[in-house]
Amino acid sequence: MRLLALILALYHGANGALMLALPGPWYRLTPGAAESGPMNAHFVRDIGLGFLAAALALALFARAPRAAIVWPAALFLGGHAGLHLAEMALHGTVPAAVLRDLALIVLPGLAPLWLLARPAAGLAEGRS
C-alpha cells in the first residue's frame, strides 16, 4: 500500500512539475490536451499545482497511512478521472484514446480511492 502511494506520488508529482515548469511543451506533448481547447499557460500551471498537492498528500500517506492524509488526493485525482470517464461516455472517443486515458489518467486517478478502501491500517474503519 505504501509503495503504491509512493509510485503514485512520483507519477503525479512529475506531471505537476512539468505542467508548472514547461506548460507549452507539456500541452503539445500530452496526447489529447490540444483537443481540449487552446493552450492557456496559467490554467495548465493551476492544474499542475493540483497535481503537486495530490502528490504531496500521497507521499505523506506513504510515510504514515492515514485516511485523512490521502482524501485530498483522492478527491482531485478521482474527480479528474471521473471527468475523463464522463467525457468519454458523453462525447465518445476512439479505442486507442480510451486505452490511453484508462492507463494514464483513470487508473492512476482512482488508485487513491482504492488505498482508502483497503482494510489495512484501519483505513476502512476510519480509525485514522
From TrEMBL:
User: Which residues span the membrane?
Assistant: 43-61, 68-86, 98-117
Record's superkingdom?
Bacteria
Keywords in alphabetical order, please.
Answer: Membrane, Transmembrane, Transmembrane helix
- What is the designated name of this protein? DUF4345 domain-containing protein
Organism classification, top ranks? Answer: Bacteria, Pseudomonadati, Pseudomonadota, Alphaproteobacteria, Rhodospirillales
